[in-house]
Amino acid sequence: MTEQETFYNEIIADLENGRLVLPTLPEVALKVRDIVDDPDTTSAKLAGIIVTDPALSTRLVKVANSALYRGRYPVESIQMAVSRLGLTMVRNLVTSLVMEQMFQATSNRLEKRLHDLWEHSTEVAAISQIIASKQAGIKADEAMLAGLIHDIGILPILIKAEESPAMFKDPAVLNSLILRLHTRIGAAILRSWKFPESLIAVAAEHENYDRDTGKGPDLVDIIQVANIQSYMNTNKALRQEQLQNVKAFTKLNIDTNINVVELDENSAEYAEALTLFGAM
After folding, report:
1. 140 three-state secondary structure
2. Torsion (CA) 208, 212, 215, 218 in degrees, nearest 10
3. In 2-55, at which residue ranges do the beta strands (DSSP E only) sit?
4. How deeply is 128 buried, as exposed, middle or buried, from its count of CB atoms within 10 A (0-12, 13-18, 19+)?
5. Structural domain includes residue 232
6. How far is CA 188 from CA 24, 123, 192, 203, in A?
7. Phi and psi at residue 104, in whole multiples of 5°?
8. 3-state secondary structure of 171
9. Separation of alpha carbons 124 and 147, rounded Å
């Protein structure tokens, strides 16, 4: 049995037996979710949780004043931000803003991998926000969060690979393992976080380009197109004949020849979304 096969079998066994170490959401995100899920909650209660984290508070006020969300008057406090954005949107934004904490490297071997993964995730999130803003019935903030978590299943694979240094010596082998494993592990992570099925489906199905629910476009369709477009002009780009077979483009009414980021009407919105995560 090759080292690759051994690694694959071990990680699947660990996942099935509950031994695989899955990342956990930062505490503030869990508290915010609990507050929002409480039917008796108020915006004041939610604001009270957020202000206990000064760095998060500053970033959320900045988001509320950004071109993506700002209203007629500037937001000067968390209470104003919650009132303007609403409980559900604040929950999604808080989760998005603290997500970067899970991509911090604990070793030099992991540093570049995690940096590149976070950079890719933020790019997909920004593209997803653009696409969702033009689709009826799909919330842009939820699409942004979906973009950030679509590859979350890669984290446990990289952490376990760190125990086998040989895995990092051959990037092609590690990439092959990630491709085979990350969607299944990603879905398991989001189930453990008690995320809604719509987001679990993003982690599980975003690589399945033959997917067709027979219904209108959903979050998976948006993430598929955003993910594909993030690889344009790279060695991971799909060929035109492959793109034409991806049903998500048709469902979203997006031309496979068009990069949504390069459209003048979208470029500023894309840049603004990236700045939310310090990506520019």
Report:
1. helix
2. 20
3. none
4. buried
5. yes
6. 12, 23, 6, 9
7. -85, 130
8. helix
9. 5
* CA–CA gap between residue 266 and residue 68 (Å, rounded): 11
| Number of folded domains that form the chain | 1
Smallest Cα–Cα separation from 140: which of 85, 194, 211? 85
Is the model's pLDDT at 278 over the cut of 70?
no
CB-based contact 134:269 (threshold 8 Å): no
Dist. CA 149–CA 190, nearest whole Å:
9
Phi, psi dihedrals of residue 223, rounded to the nearest 5°:
-65, -35
Q: Rounded distance, CA 182 to CA 230, Å?
A: 18
* Cα 80 from Cα 178, distance rounded (Å): 42
Confidence band, pLDDT 50/70/90 cuts, at residue 264: low
In a domain, 194, yes or no: yes
The 10 Å Cβ neighbour count of residue 266 is 20
Asked whether residue 208 is domain-assigned, the answer is yes
- Whose tokens are 């399945």? That residue is 208
The whole-angstrom separation of Cα 240 and Cα 131 is: 20
Residue 280 lies in a domain: no
pTM, 2 dp: 0.92
CATH number of the domain enclosing 147: 1.10.3210.10
pLDDT in tens, 195-210: 999 999 999 999 999 8
Range of the domain at 192: 3-275
CA gap 209, 75 in Å, rounded: 41
- Residue 136's identity, in one-letter code, is A
The amino acid sitting at 81 is A
Strands (E), the chain: none
Tally of residues, the chain: 280
CA atoms within 13 A on the CB side of 219: 23
